[in-house]
């Protein structure tokens, strides 16, 4: 047993429970959930998605991080990057003295500053194989909060590589989780991967497999999204499909289907098992939240609020679903609601923040609310109370 690589808490759950309750719990949200996820005050009805907010993996990561701070008072504690994609949680860890080694909360510390007696927390997204190796060489204590669903994807990607298949990952090449997942190919001789973001990029790969596109054009396009020395002529003969766990589930399934069809066109149905593998590695919490927002929207709402960090992939994808049904606003927290006339929100699949006017209509109104897997109940409560206040409801 490696006593410097800790994958469980420190048995301090009871000692941090009051703090977690105060910072993340909401009595109002409990009340709404107990009332079939519906709350009506005057002319305003709030409908909360049946599944929303913190998932088990996020809850566990925060729990372990708070236990770590409790366990090692006075020690230097580092976090490799954002704990989760929620600004409130990351800012709280900063306030507790945790130092970030990368990302927007980074204040200048580096791996070179870490000593053997220090502690490093690995976030829910996990870390790359190379970074983990570097940290282990230092000999510091590692508190590993990597989500179990992410570990499941890693298992499949490693197996692809060991069996000489290139990992085709449906995800965002710059996302922490996808970076860590792609690095799992480094553990075998077949350390090859290619990352596709959407159907358009998948089609580019499929066109090459079918012999319809140029090798140089493909490499130029995917320059940031392939493994070093990637050779499409060799590395797209056998493909195993996996995905970033927070992508839209139906899109990941479609990506796999597109690649499979291209392989059949190239090699024939009888040879498909020698050229293609696929596993549905969308995490159950992501799937449940996507299913829940569809149920919420089908039940009838006038507008939808989606709450979560602006760099949260799963929150972005909830918004992608919501905008298909009607007005939907992706906000990071309550501060985005300026007044009853204006709201600031991020457009899906974009980093652009837009201000929309006349977003909160008069009269009888039903508002659907959901939140990404990194959003605490306490932050959802703040949004609901703000809306009720602007609607002049008590």
Q: What does the model show?
A:
With 394 residues, the protein is α/β, with parallel strands linked by helices. The chain has three domains: 13-55 and 285-390, 4-hydroxy-3-methylbut-2-enyl diphosphate reductase, catalytic domain (Cobalt-precorrin-4 Transmethylase, domain 1, 3-Layer(aba) Sandwich); 56-146, Rossmann fold (3-Layer(aba) Sandwich), CATH 3.40.50; 149-282, 4-hydroxy-3-methylbut-2-enyl diphosphate reductase, catalytic domain (Cobalt-precorrin-4 Transmethylase, domain 1, 3-Layer(aba) Sandwich), CATH 3.40.1010. The chain is 40% helix and 17% strand. It contains 14 helices and 16 strands. The protein has helices at residues 13-24, 27-34, 56-71, 87-95, 129-138, 148-162, 176-183, 199-209, 215-221, 232-235, 249-267, 284-298, 313-322, 377-390; strands at residues 5-6, 38-41, 44-48, 77-79, 99-100, 119-122, 141-144, 166-170, 193-196, 239-243, 276-278, 303-307, 328-331, 342-346, 353-357, 365-371. The strands form four sheets. The chain has a five-stranded parallel β-sheet, with helices on one face. Strand 14 and strand 15 form a beta hairpin. The longest helix is centred in the middle third of the chain and has 19 residues, at 249-267. The protein is globular and about 65 Å long. The model has no long low-confidence stretch (mean pLDDT 95).
